[in-house]
Recover the amino acids of this structure.
C-alpha cells in the first residue's frame, strides 16, 4: 500500500538512524518506545471520534469495555481494571458508573469480600461492540498506516528483532 511506504506527512522525520546511532541522546530501545507511544497516541486521537459516534461513550470508557470484552463473562474486579488501565480508582468508579447508567456494564459485590466489586459487560454492550468492531478496526488500520513510516517500523524491529518472524494467532 502506498500510504504505508511513504513517510507519514503528519510526522516529523526521525533524527538519526533508527538504531539510535545518529548522535541523539536516546538509546535505540528508548527511541523505539517513544515512536511506539507517538503512534499509539495518533491512533487514539483518531479513534476517539469514531468511538463516540459508534458507541456513544468516551475513549476511556471504551478502553474499559474492550478490557471487559476479553475477559470471562464474570468480569473483573474494579481494582484489577484500574491496575490494567493504569487509572486512578476514583476516576474508574466514575467511568464505570457512566457505563452502568448506559446499560453497558453491571457491577456486583465479590462473594466473601464486602469491599470487592466486579464489573462485567451486559449483553447490550457485547452486541454494540460486535456491531461497531469493523469500523473501529478499520480506523485503527488507517491511523497506523498514516503514522507508522519506514523509520518507525525499523525502530520497532530493532526493539523486537523477531517481530516480523513471529507467527500471528494462537
Amino acid at each position: 500500500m502506498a500510504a504505508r511506504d511513504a513517510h507519514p506527512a503528519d510526522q516529523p522525520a526521525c533524527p538519526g538512524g533508527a538504531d539510535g546511532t545518529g548522535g541523539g541522546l536516546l538509546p535505540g530501545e528508548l527511541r523505539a518506545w517513544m515512536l511506539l507511544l507517538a503512534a499509539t497516541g495518533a491512533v487514539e486521537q483518531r479513534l476517539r471520534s469514531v468511538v463516540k459516534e459508534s458507541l456513544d461513550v468516551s475513549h476511556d470508557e471504551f478502553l474499559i469495555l474492550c478490557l471487559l470484552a476479553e475477559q470471562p463473562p464474570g468480569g473483573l474486579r474494579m481494582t484489577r481494571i484500574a491496575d490494567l488501565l493504569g487509572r486512578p480508582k476514583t476516576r474508574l468508579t466514575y467511568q464505570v458508573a457512566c457505563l452502568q447508567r448506559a446499560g453497558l456494564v453491571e457491577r456486583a459485590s465479590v462473594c466473601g469480600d464486602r469491599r470487592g466489586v466486579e464489573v462485567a459487560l451486559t449483553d447490550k454492550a457485547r452486541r454494540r461492540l460486535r456491531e461497531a468492531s469493523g469500523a473501529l478496526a478499520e480506523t485503527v488500520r488507517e491511523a497506523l498506516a498514516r503514522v507508522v513510516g519506514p523509520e518507525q517500523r525499523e525502530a520497532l524491529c530493532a526493539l523486537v528483532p523477531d517481530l516480523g518472524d513471529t507467527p500471528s494467532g494462537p
Remarks:
- Residues 28-55 form the longest helix (28 residues).
- The chain has seven helices and three strands.
